[in-house]
Amino acid sequence: MSGKYNILFTIMMVLGVSAGRSDAQDYHLGNTLAGILNKGYPASYIQGYMQSFATAMGTSVNGTSFHSARVNFFPHVEIGINAVYISVPDEARYFLYNGQERQTFFGPLSNELDDISGSGMSSFTIPQIQLDLGMFSYFQASLRVTRYNISEMGEISLLGLGVKYGLSDLVSIDFIPLEVSVQAFYHAYSIEDWLSSGSFAINLQNSARLAFLPVEIFAGLGYERVSLKIKSDNLPGIGENAAGDIPIDGKNGVRITLGAGLQVWLINMHAEYNYGFYNSAGGGLSIRF
Residues 175-221: pLDDT tens digits? Predict the structure, then answer.
């Protein structure tokens, strides 16, 4: 079983690398942010440049947090690999600064020396490892981690902690095999030593098994808040132009999740689509013991 798991892990990481990279090989976010301040732009320019980035990253890290409303009971454990794919809309590539349209992080790559370039990225994927541990009294604890490098951004380190509570006994309907639960998750991620972010999400989940098929459909209604902080004192090459900590809030809010999973013995394969401020798709593989 461990050999199969290693193969699946490798496949997901390769897919993540191919989806997370663009052709902008010479771009690096930390250097670009330092360049903005070194050119005399204020912190408000960085807030506009990075606002769509904050929203997109919040959409990514909060995705694929569940694939069933069922709760694992002690001592059952489920471990898996999840990934979210996000393709930003055209409006995420520009922002207004002094009445002029300027490029965000997702703007096109530019080689003009006097221009502040975007990364040229239009999409990315970040894989995560998730561990779900059954507890007592209808509670389930979750842990999510990743350490992943996207050349345009830098090395991303993430830690997520969550708790889920099963509500099925409170809302059970005899003729509808529906599972219901509520889940809260907090994610913290950083990029090298110059960016840190926190994200809180809560969602109401429901799922149901299809008759005579090993398929489970699931849905969720959630709300999420996302913020990040640029530690400009730590930006590479900043010199005397640092502006201290620069806070940026994402525009994340209500999220609707629809998905389906296939259970084959101990292995679950699942996929989802999320409707929110930015839409996203996700999926994963997990093994339940």
Answer: 567 899 999 999 999 999 999 999 999 999 999 998 888 999 999 99
d(CA 250, CA 111): 28
> How far, CA to CA in Å, does 213 sit from each of 59, 118, 217, 221?
31, 47, 11, 25
Helix (H, G, I), strand (E, B) or coil at 184: strand
Determine whether 57 is exposed, middle or buried from the number of CB atoms within 10 Å of its CB (0-12, 13-18, 19+).
buried
CB 59 within 8 Å of CB 252: yes
pTM: 0.88
CA dist 146 and 128 (Å) reads 5
Angle at 66 between CA 164 and CA 191, to 5 degrees: 100
3-state secondary structure 50-82: HHHHHHHHHHHHCCCCCCCCCCCECCCEEEEEE
Contact, 168 vs 179, CB < 8 A? yes
Q: What is the largest CA-CA distance in the chain?
A: 68
Q: Are strands 178-191 and 195-209 parallel, antiparallel or unpaired?
A: antiparallel
Give backbone dihedrals phi and psi of 259, rounded to 5 degrees, phi first. -165, 180
Closest to 205 (Cα-Cα) out of 243, 158, 171? 171
Name the residue ranges covered by the structural domains of the chain: 2-288
First and final C-alpha spacing in the chain: 11
